[in-house]
Known about the structure:
Blueprint: H1 3-23, E1 33-37, H2 43-56, E2 61-66, E3 69-74, H3 81-86, E4 97-101, E5 105-106, H4 113-123, E6 129-133, H5 138-141, H6 144-160, E7 172-179, E8 182-188, H7 214-224, H8 230-233, E9 239-243, H9 249-256, E10 260-264, H10 271-275, E11 279-282, E12 295-300, H11 306-318, E13 322-330, H12 336-353, E14 358-363, E15 371-378
Parallel strand pairs: 6-7, 9-10, 9-12, 10-11, 12-13
Antiparallel strand pairs: 1-3, 1-4, 2-3, 4-8, 5-8, 7-8, 13-15, 14-15
Helix pairs in contact: 7-9, 11-12
Amino acid sequence: MPRESYRVFYARLFIKWQVNQKGRSVAHAVPSTWLVYCRPGFEKAVLAELQYHAGVHGVLCVEESGDGWASLTRKNEEPINTLHRLAAFDLLIFARQSLVAVPELTLSREDRLSPIVDQLLEAGWSFDAIWHETPDTNDGKALSRLLKALSRPLESTLKKRGALRRKAGGRRLHVFWKSGTCVQLGMSFPGNRSELPGGIRRLRSPSRAPSRSTLKLEEAWHEFIPKQEWEQRLSPHMTAADLGAAPGGWTWQLVQKGMYVYAIDNGPINADLMASGQVDHLKEDGFTWEPPQRLDWLVCDIVDKPMRVLAMVERWLVRRWCKEAVFNLKLPMKKRWEEVTKCLSHLESSLHQAGVKSRIRCRHLYHDREEVTVHVRLES
């Protein structure tokens, strides 16, 4: 959606709220909450990230979280749309989805739909799609039959009331079910959200890959490289290095793209990969090995302290030994957000001081666990 459309939409909502405030209290329909989804167990990290952005833009908020989600609500109960727009989804690391939301509703089992419809009409929202979602937990998955039963009746009612319509600027309603009787309604906007249900990219594990870690690199490519650029940036006859390669999960992805790979690890590499003729297995230390010429790609999933891995990757990037890099940073159990920002700030500063122009992105991917994935592309 164009920036002007955002402003017009947000302004209309705020004016409507002010008008309603004069007539009757509808504070429960004000979109004053920034709601995000995350991997269960990472709620503290995502809250620290959201509070950082709120602090940068001078917005005072109250935080709340549950398994697989976190939120900030403005203390003055005014709309949070501006903060949501400024802290764009592409900037976020630990959030799987980013929504503007109204306060949660407690529902009765006898009538779950009427309160949802009433709150949406009071909020004045219109949208062209409805997604029913749950936290990424076993309790959330257990709600699937209930959501399927409620989906069509809610859609039919909202069409009749004019909230769900064909052309609504790509706005999407997210009905986030925290339980069977607790729901929070959120809105997402094109260009500032994940286009995946629940913000999760589910990939099928290749049966021939040496390990499931192969999905980390595949997901990273989906996340950081537009599909229309794959043919150019992930093309056959490119060269790559996989540091800490054994048994070859990431090397397998590179080979599937037709690349020639230097697999650096003292451990064994899968026999089928070696038989491809595209892999040169060097039993050397990935932290000290140097490539014989400039490569197209560096990938690395070494288990070590994040700053040690970062120092190694910085050396590659400053000396321009590769054009693009994907690497994982293993995180401590506490202060994950602080550790990530320290690493990224250090990397950005080092490249800037060396006169190396680059684009750096970082995301906690679905197939990551206690780690984040960083992508760096050097600019000529």
